[in-house]
Amino acid sequence: MTERPPVIVGAGPAGIRAAATLAAAGLAPIVIDEAPRSGGQIYRRPPHGFARSYRTLYGFDAAKARRLHETFDGLARKIDYRPDTLVWDLRDGVMHCLSAGASREVAYRDIILAPGARDRIIPFPGWTLPGVYTLGGAQIALKAQGCAVGARVVFMGTGPLLYLVAYQYAKAGGGVAAVLDTTPFAAKRRALPGLLRGGRTFAKGLWYVARLRARGIVMASGIKAIAAQGEGAVSAFVYQDAAGSRKTIACDAIAFGYGLSSETQLADLAEIPFAFDSLQQQFLPQRDIAGRTPVRGVYVAGDGSGIAGADAAELAGERAALALLEDRGLAADGARVQTLERALRRISRFRAGLEAAFPFPVDVAAKIPDETVLCRCEGVTAGELRQSARDIDGGDINRAKAFSRCGMGRCQARTCGPSAAIVMAAALNVPLERAGRLRGQPPVKPIPLAVSHE
Amino acid sequence: MSERLAADVAIVGGGTVGCSTALHMRQRGVSVVLLERGVCGGQASGVNYGGVRQQGRHLSELPLARRAREMWGRLGEIVGTDCEFMASGHVKLARADAEITELEAYRDAVKPYGLELELLDREQLRSRYPFLGDAAVAGSLCAEDGQANPRLVAPAFARAARAAGATIREHARVIEIARDGAQFVVRTADDVEVRSGALVNVAGAWGHEIAAQFGEIVPEDVMAPNMCVTEPLPYFMVPNFGVCGGGIYVRQIPRGNVIFGGGKGVADREHVRARPIAGTSLAAAAQAIALVPRLRHAQVIRTWTGIEGYMPDVIPVIGPSRTTPGLFHAFGFSGHGFQLGPAVGAVLTELVLDGATPTPIAAFDIGRFAKTEAIQ
Questions:
Q1: Which residues in chain B are closer than 8 Å to A410, comparing Cβ atoms?
Q2: Range of the domain at B23
Q3: Pair type for strands B51-52 and B146-147
Q4: What is the pTM of this model?
Q5: What is the DSSP letter of A129?
Q6: How many CB atoms lie under 10 A from the CB of residue B121?
Q7: Could you give phi then psi for residue A409, rounded to 5 degrees?
Q8: Is residue B65 part of a domain?
Q9: DSSP assignment of A348-387
Q10: What is the pLDDT of residues A69-107, one digit of tens each?
Q11: Are residues B138 and B160 in the same domain?
Q12: Does 3.50.50.60 match the CATH number of domain A121-258?
């Protein structure tokens, strides 16, 4: 029997580099990706037939995007690429892949999980109104489909994506009503030394801010979201400015987010132990710098194993692939390993600075008003979750989920989970890690009942 | 944590049975400590399908099931919440003509127990439940059966018991049970010691381990029923449906989600871990569609399972120990303990305090396995 090919889940920066590395070593990995085209979120490619230049689509990162896409396209004959395919469960060396209405079992011996990240949000009053998007969602609409989520968009929250997406909208001719940062200016200034280590990344951030200012766009920091308002759809955003005044700004869309959270369901189903990461304020799969996990043959790379950005994802994908080669007893370039690990360590120091500049506002999440819907799938308010927290004795977030239904719906807490854990911890008056971690349950995303099974 | 507790009765296991026992003991003024390894209702009691069903049971279980059904009807009065119990009806479907005879025979057999079943022919089924597919050829309706939310039941009993004065310890893993004269001495991993006059073993899939410590070896196997739930759909299906042979069961809750089960997941009793199996979930989905074709348009949002104790004759062990005075067992409910749970707590309380119960339970005697071994 021929040896099973390695498997890579995700065709973003980490997955693509991993694929290239394995292919270069003469292996023909299976690359499974949920998206119809490779590139991941940051280097997402528009559907076939859309003709826009790399410069238009990716700005400063055009060269990187082109390089990554060309790398992947160049692998076409060397890998087994399966786009439009959802890995919805995996255990004991078998994964279940849904594609075109059929679920297929694929056996694996070793697997690199590079599923990426999603927007991290904090619910606020009115956030379920039509017209309220995540920053990432607003960016995808622009990048993939060339359309804007609104003609007058308020960008709100924190994190590098806030300024980047606002800038991309402004540049594309979309109406930017305001860019409102929840982080106080003073926090950013304090974080400056750490940020400066980021060099080019930091410079890009400054440039976006300057460009937005030059366009005369309303910009503020240290704001607090009060509510999205509107009848049937959003028509205004109400917030409190840094000086404490209540402000209302007319808009037809709001794009908001507070950085990213790692997609960890597959790592969970692979039974990798998790540990609380205080920098990211999230439970993450345990791994070493090479991406090896305590589960033999399972590797993690990219934002799915901890948010570090696209550059780090490329390095981590390559490093994980080299680890896989080492563990298969194949030759891996030792000098290259050293270089990758040095670069990954450097980025991780810069990440610490970024987290300080754009901290996840735990206090904002803890204070979500009682009447605000926290879990939109199940319609559970923050107050109901708090009541559940009080009803349980020494329980954790899984217990509160069982009682309140928070996190039990379509998204399986991928949206509300980070905030729900904070609300729980605050209600129980315990540190966030003590609130526990919602266990992943298959399917990773909803699957139709009517699938054929092979 | 070093702690010494004394109680009239120690209960090991915080499922519905254990929590109901604690409540009933308190209602009789007896002091009680309950030790639960994880959280109350964390295993079979909390992760099952949620069927509150008498129909289809082994006849020996019917008196107990009848008593339980009476309690389900006044759960609000007993524990302060109805746990989403609905007497929505349970329909057992025949999918072959031969199975119709089976339904008829069962209907006649349960009549003496006071259980009324209504047989529905194909046309009656279609007119009452137009959403059923062609697979079903007849059905048997038990109007007083229904469904409840399993996640709420054991915790509700635990809360009520605690409010009535029971000591309930979660995350308290029992590592040793010893005898000291007439007393039981139970120790937990974090050094809680409970001394009691009576010991109630309601440890579910782990019940046989405690029985074995007292020389009662029973062949308790383990099973993890594989469950799935869909996104919310418009509410169309009121009764809880099962089939002859038991391969698939399906119900809908008024908020719209459809819950179905069939087949087994992975049960790892040693590590207290259970997982649904993807292939089993897909097979159950196909069966659910055959039963209710409109489900083909729905999506499964979650699958789960839990660990249940299973006896070879598929009825539980309930009753006094045959070796040790003061020790009482109730475990191995073989996949259908949810409905019985509240009543088993009442029965155990009677056994411990009065030495007898009005509910016939002879069939569940632990001695039945000893006899089997002697014959062999």
A1: 231, 299, 301
A2: 3-47+151-219+312-375
A3: antiparallel
A4: 0.93
A5: S
A6: 11
A7: -95, -155
A8: no
A9: HHHHHHHHHHS---HHHHHT--TTSEEETTTTEEHHHHHH
A10: 999 999 999 999 999 999 999 999 999 999 999 999 999
A11: no
A12: yes
